[in-house]
């Protein structure tokens, strides 16, 4: 498609049609303070080589994840993505296709979405999954909205172990949808004196769902089976959030513990860190709730001659047909990221997935043991997958800065999310994936010893 | 004797004493095409005349079904959960949606009788 700018005559015609004498008159309602006279002060045009040189110099100021020992997680995980994934998703048929508005002509797209959904349902232990949402956080907020529709209730209990960004997206939705949130204290359950959280006790007759993350924000693995039972007895749904989807290669899936909705971030499989996005939200539920499920759903069927084919099904619940009564304002999906997920998971297979999960856990155990040996450093978790929390003998934020000066990206200080909480200031979140080597752990430990001296 | 009335939203109401049975008309099911799902209200819920009481979903659209009269839902047609096609096969009979205990039987007076509804549908074309 060529870019065809407007001509002066086009502009004159349009202004005449709406009865404005000039562009300035058209924008008369925009306050002066919000208007800019003239152009932004940009440097003069440069040649390609010169621009490349300038930008490379700027990029070198970053410490790239792959260039140093890297222990940052907190909802976004650095994993090895096989080159085949990028190669395949860059095929023009995949890379440039938009969400199919005449879906049945895009059989290839529908087929991979169907396979994606099948993988997500198998991974989470659920009966049905959609064709993906934007990311884990929007999937979580959509799960809360769906629970309200299913139960015709209005309140969600959020575990303190829910990722603070996810909680914040739920709050944004709630502010405009008018539903109530009962967010619990974010202190990790196992910190002495925090007393844990009793989610079951928070459920009342208005509670639509309880939202629990597993492994939780601090990396702790939880058994939510008993909680699921209590939710069901009280007519509420259990929403399980997973921010590290690779954990499902090693731990009991939410579906097997009685979850009604699973909302997960799928970035870990097939997708790089990408500066925080685009990511891919996974959303799965029980068959009986499928009509209240947000997003798109690809279905498998047969045509008039009995040949296998795919359709978008249940679209009558979507915004372009049901307007404000739609199940969600999202009637698209993260197609390309979902494809990357599907290709990577297909390459891994079941054995590859569990093997990769085991590598992650082994690396995390090695790192946790090494750090916990250090004087004043204490492991907070009882159990974890590939991310854990340690308590340092002093506030974690300046320690992380000093580690970075020594070329180690040593995790996330919890104070970054809860700056007002002095009791959480010494906590450091450490993620250890298969990309971390023994040497990385040794360098981390050496740098931390220096910094804590 | 049972009184049959119709709304402009193509619902029918059959009054029988203090309750009324509600469904969608044959014209409505024809317009919708194959009905694939019907979402019915809970028994015991209070519905208000003109407000959403159920949802009927076909292969091409999902539409609200409005309560033609106010009152309490005393029964819903559970057959539709397993066999929504009943709505197409027998809209005015086996494809009924719900029974409402009338809070104000006079509301029925404002609705069309069969002849008026037929004329109304004819006008739509």
Count of alpha/pi helices of chain A: 13
Provide the CATH top-level class of chain B. Answer: Mainly Beta
User: Which descriptor suits the 3D outline of chain A?
Assistant: globular
Helix proportion range of chain B: 10-25%
Given helix and strand content, the structural type of chain B is alpha+beta
Count of the domains of chain B: 1
Please describe what this structure looks like.
The complex is a heterodimer of chains A (453) and B (125). Chain A has 453 residues and is of the alpha/beta class. Chain A folds into 2 domains: 67-80 and 350-452, Aspartate Aminotransferase, domain 1; 83-344, Aspartate Aminotransferase, domain 2, CATH 3.40.640.10. Chain A is 36% helix and 13% strand. Chain A has helices spanning 8-18, 23-26, 48-59, 83-89, 92-95, 107-124, 136-151, 164-177, 225-233, 319-322, 335-372, 396-405, 438-452; strands spanning 128-129, 155-158, 180-183, 207-213, 237-242, 261-265, 281-285, 297-302, 308-313, 378-379, 387-391, 412-413, 427-431. In chain A, the strands form 3 sheets. In chain A, strands 1-7-6-5-4-2-3 form a 7-stranded mixed β-sheet, sandwiched between helices. Chain B is built from 4 helices and 9 strands. Chain B has one domain: RNA polymerase II/Efflux pump adaptor protein, barrel-sandwich hybrid domain (OB fold (Dihydrolipoamide Acetyltransferase, E2P)), CATH 2.40.50.100. Chain B is globular and about 35 Å long. In chain B, the strands form 2 sheets. In chain B, strands 1-2-3-9-8-5 form a 6-stranded antiparallel β-sheet. Helices cover 20% and strands 37% of the residues of chain B. The chains are: A alpha/beta (453), B alpha+beta (125). The interface between A and B is small, with 7 and 10 residues.
């Amino acid at each position: 498609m060529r870019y065809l700018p407007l001509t002066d005559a086009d502009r004159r015609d349009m202004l005449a049609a709406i009865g404005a004498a000039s562009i300035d008159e058209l924008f008369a309602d925009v306050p002066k303070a919000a208007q800019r006279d003239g152009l932004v002060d940009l440097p003069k045009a440069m040649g390609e080589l010169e621009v490349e040189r300038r930008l490379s110099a700027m990029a070198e100021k970053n410490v790239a994840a792959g260039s140093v020992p890297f222990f940052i997680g907190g909802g976004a995980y650095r994993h090895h993505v096989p080159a085949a994934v990028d190669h395949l998703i860059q095929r023009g048929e995949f890379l440039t296709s938009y969400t199919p508005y005449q879906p049945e002509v895009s059989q290839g797209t529908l087929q991979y979405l169907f396979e994606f959904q099948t993988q997500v349902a198998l991974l989470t232990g659920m009966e049905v999954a959609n064709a993906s949402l934007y990311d884990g956080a929007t999937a979580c907020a959509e799960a809360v909205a769906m629970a309200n529709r299913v139960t015709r209730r209005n309140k969600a209990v959020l575990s303190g172990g829910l990722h603070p960004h996810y909680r914040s997206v739920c709050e944004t939705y709630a502010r405009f949808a008018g539903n109530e949130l009962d967010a619990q204290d974010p202190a990790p359950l196992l910190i002495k004196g925090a007393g844990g959280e009793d989610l079951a006790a928070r459920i009342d007759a208005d509670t639509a769902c309880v939202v629990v993350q597993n492994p939780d924000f601090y990396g702790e693995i939880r058994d939510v089976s008993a909680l699921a039972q209590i939710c069901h007895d009280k007519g509420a749904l259990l929403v399980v959030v997973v921010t590290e989807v690779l954990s499902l290669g090693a731990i009991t899936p939410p579906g097997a513990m009685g979850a009604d909705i699973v909302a997960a971030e799928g970035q870990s499989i097939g997708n790089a860190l990408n500066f925080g996005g685009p990511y891919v939200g996974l959303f799965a539920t029980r068959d009986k709730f499928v009509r209240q499920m947000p997003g798109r759903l690809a279905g498998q069927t047969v045509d008039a001659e009995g040949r296998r084919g795919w359709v978008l099904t249940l679209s009558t619940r979507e915004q372009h047909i049901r307007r404000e009564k739609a199940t969600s304002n999202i009637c698209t999906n993260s197609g390309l990221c979902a494809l990357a997920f599907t290709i990577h998971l297909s390459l891994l297979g079941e054995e590859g997935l569990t093997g990769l999960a085991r590598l992650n856990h082994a690396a995390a155990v090695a790192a946790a043991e090494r750090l916990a040996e250090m004087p004043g450093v204490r492991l907070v978790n009882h159990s974890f997958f590939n991310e854990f929390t340690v308590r340092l003998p002093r506030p974690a934020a300046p320690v992380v800065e000093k580690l970075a000066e020594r070329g180690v990206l040593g995790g996330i200080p919890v104070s970054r999310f809860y700056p007002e909480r002095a009791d959480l200031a010494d906590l450091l979140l450490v993620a250890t994936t298969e990309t971390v080597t023994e040497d990385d752990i040794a360098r981390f430990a050496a740098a931390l010893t220096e910094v804590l001296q | 004797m049972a009184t049959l009335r119709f709304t402009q939203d193509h619902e029918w109401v059959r009054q029988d004493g203090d309750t009324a049975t509600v469904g969608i008309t044959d014209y409505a099911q024809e317009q919708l095409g194959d009905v694939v799902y019907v979402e019915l209200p809970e028994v015991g819920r209070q519905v208000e005349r003109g407000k959403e009481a159920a949802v009927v979903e076909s292969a091409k659209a999902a539409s609200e079904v409005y309560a033609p009269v106010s009152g309490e839902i005393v029964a819903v047609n559970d057959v539709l959960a397993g066999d929504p096609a009943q709505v197409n096969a027998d809209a005015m009979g086996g494809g009924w949606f719900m029974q409402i205990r009338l809070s104000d039987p006079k509301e029925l007076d404002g609705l069309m009788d069969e002849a008026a509804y037929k004329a109304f549908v004819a006008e739509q074309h």
